[in-house]
Design goal:
Largest interface: A-B, 51 and 48 residues
Order of helices and strands of chain A: EHEHEHEHEHEEH
Order of helices and strands of chain B: EHHHEEHEEHEHEHHEEE
Strand content of chain B: 15-25%
Strand content of chain A: 15-25%
Number of helices of chain B: 8
Structural class of chain B: alpha/beta
Number of helices of chain A: 6
Number of strands of chain A: 7
Oligomer: heterodimer
Radius of gyration of chain B: 19 Å
Largest sheet of chain A: 5 strands, mixed, barrel
Distance between the termini of chain A: 23 Å
Structural class of chain A: alpha/beta
Strand order of the largest sheet of chain B: 4-2-5-10
Distance between the termini of chain B: 14 Å
Radius of gyration of chain A: 17 Å
Shape of chain B: globular
Largest sheet of chain B: 4 strands, mixed
Strand order of the largest sheet of chain A: 2-3-4-5-7
Shape of chain A: globular
Chain lengths: ~200, ~280
């Protein structure tokens, strides 16, 4: 196994969104990343609408090329706050839609949890990346949002599509562009490591 | 007969909904801190550290610790010597949820119909569990339930011959399948016995128990400890990145059942295991 996820926190990679081919190529499953730049929010209902729009031959409310979608439904912001609490939602519910968006140029997804084999294959095929945000890290992640504007489907409330400007959003690479999966590697390496330590 | 105006119920539920979302209970926080000290796997210990920092930040600034502020699950123990006046209990609870979720800037995640999916925009209705108890007090617990973990819960009607081994196997299977989706470290609520519906209600009730309070019966106490150890040997770890802290507690509730049956329900809660209570 090439990479080892037994990583120290000072080995953090800083990257910008929209993503470049070079940045994606440099990322490996298990890397800890701080992401800055422009990203879009979208979860269940928004994905359904995006794909329905494509089925009708309409253009999407934003250009997908090189963009990152964050699977999140934030809490309403308190007065004086830029953004509410904003941890990730579970990604598998977007699996039915993700390959189609990746084929259209989407390069990054942020969420949590397992993806289907179809999504992993599509990530490899399209040279994309799946980032994990820590589930429930709502308060901390909300603080890394500098700007937030609703750009589509306002009637969906928490599920509306928002354009965000983020600074140092804390993420972990879950599936890299080669299809390496942190959930498999991390758990296997941990079990191997534990076995060697139990034996000592 | 003691009279309680349902307006007090509304007021209490409003406050409990906010407090539950801002302040992680001390027992849960304590287990996370304890687990972080024991974690030797760096990605796991780092992840636990971030989860603890998030809970501290949420409490300090009164922010929801998680964006999924849940469907409001409300447990009510109503003393049979209490006379409620001024309206119905159900309306009073839902009004409290409505006010708490609006005034507390909490996310409204409830849709009025599972298939047509129109948001009710005020997070009502709550899921209310009512039990009548002796006395003249009214106890209310509000437990916002996020669906990352709720979606990973399962129940099964086992055969009596499946026995203890079958029960353990099923619980471990549910935890393994939940993996990172349920936001580990998780709290595992298990309901055993009763009927199909009773087992599920018991599993939910088990999640209400303080983590440092094991089942009173030694047999189930031992089973809770054994299952916690076995779940943590799966290696899933915090957020599924690998590590020993997959669960921070297992709580089992049981009830008599039929000679032909062995219902088992597993209700999973995420690390943001939230609940707050008040006694009126």
């Amino acid at each position: 196994m090439e990479q080892h996820v037994h990583q120290k926190e000072d080995q953090v990679k800083r990257i910008l969104a929209p993503l470049t081919r070079e940045a994606i190529a440099s990322l490996r499953a298990g890397d800890i990343v701080l992401l800055s730049g422009v990203i879009y929010t979208g979860r269940d209902a928004a994905h359904k609408r995006l794909v329905e729009a494509l089925d009708r031959g309409e253009t999407l409310p934003f250009e997908l090329k090189d963009q990152v979608i964050y699977y999140v439904g934030p809490t309403p912001e308190k007065p004086g706050q830029i953004f509410g609490s904003a941890g990730p939602t579970t990604s598998y519910r977007m699996d039915a839609y993700a390959p189609r968006l990746l084929d259209l140029g989407l390069k990054g997804m942020i969420g949590k949890g397992y993806r289907s084999d179809e999504v992993t294959e599509s990530i490899k095929k399209n040279g994309a990346v799946y980032f994990g945000a820590i589930g429930g890290l709502g308060a901390i992640i909300g603080k890394s949002v500098r700007e937030a504007v609703i750009i589509a489907y306002e009637d969906l409330g928490a599920e509306a599509i928002r354009r965000l400007v983020v600074e140092d959003l804390p993420l972990t690479v879950l599936t890299d562009s080669q299809g390496n999966d942190l959930y498999k590697i991390g758990q296997a390496q941990y079990l191997e490591w534990r076995e060697s330590h139990d034996a000592e | 007969m003691r009279e309680i105006n349902v307006g007090e119920v509304t007021k209490a539920v409003r406050q409990l909904a906010m407090d539950a979302n801002y302040y992680l209970p001390e027992d849960v926080k304590g287990r996370l801190v304890e687990s972080q000290k024991k974690e030797k796997w760096i990605l796991a210990s780092d992840t636990l550290g971030r989860i603890i920092n998030n809970a501290d930040l949420a409490a300090q600034e009164q922010l929801p610790m998680c964006q999924d502020t849940g469907m409001a699950v409300v447990f009510v123990e109503l003393g049979q010597d209490v006379h409620l006046v001024g309206g119905t209990l159900e309306d009073a609870i839902n009004e409290g949820v409505r006010q708490g979720y609006a005034d507390g800037f909490l996310r409204k995640s409830v849709v009025e119909d599972p298939l047509n999916r129109i948001n009710t925009k005020d997070n009502t209705p709550a899921v209310i569990n009512l039990s009548l108890v002796p006395g003249d007090r009214l106890k209310i617990q509000v437990a916002p339930k996020g669906f990352g973990s709720e979606n990973m819960s399962q129940m099964k009607m086992l055969k009596p011959s499946d026995g203890l081994a079958g029960v353990k196997e099923f619980i471990l299977k549910v935890c393994r399948e939940a993996g990172p989706n349920a936001c580990p470290p998780i709290v595992v609520g298990v309901g055993l016995g009763g009927t199909f519906d009773k087992a599920a209600a018991l599993a939910k009730k088990a999640l209400m128990r303080p983590l440092d309070q094991p089942n009173a019966k030694p047999f189930y106490q031992d089973l809770e400890a054994e299952l916690l150890d076995e779940i943590n040997r799966l290696g899933i770890g915090p957020q599924g990145y690998g590590g020993q802290t997959t669960a921070i507690a297992v709580a089992i509730e049981y009830y008599p059942t039929h000679i032909a049956g062995l219902p088992v329900a597993v209700n999973i809660n995420c690390h943001a295991t939230r609940h707050k209570e008040i006694i009126l």
